[in-house]
Amino acid sequence: MKEVSKIKESDLKPGKAFFTVTKEGKITNIRLDSSSGHVSIDVKMIKLIKSIPDEWEPAKNSKGEKVDQELVYSFGIKGC
User: Which of 6, 28, 29, 68 has its C-alpha lying 20 to 30 A from 45's C-alpha?
Assistant: First the structure.
């Protein structure tokens, strides 16, 4: 975490990672959509998402059927 603490907030860009919660409650399809401008932070965000336990409650459609749902996690500068 030392390398992250050395990064100035003014040097950060808004990063965005997408992932899917499947109808089985598993996390899949993790991908970086936009970078924070620092590879070390981007890698840590992907690792963080990968470490989330697979115990999610799946989304349901209007018929009450479980469906896959894509979610987005924004990180980096404030207000992103």
Answer: 68
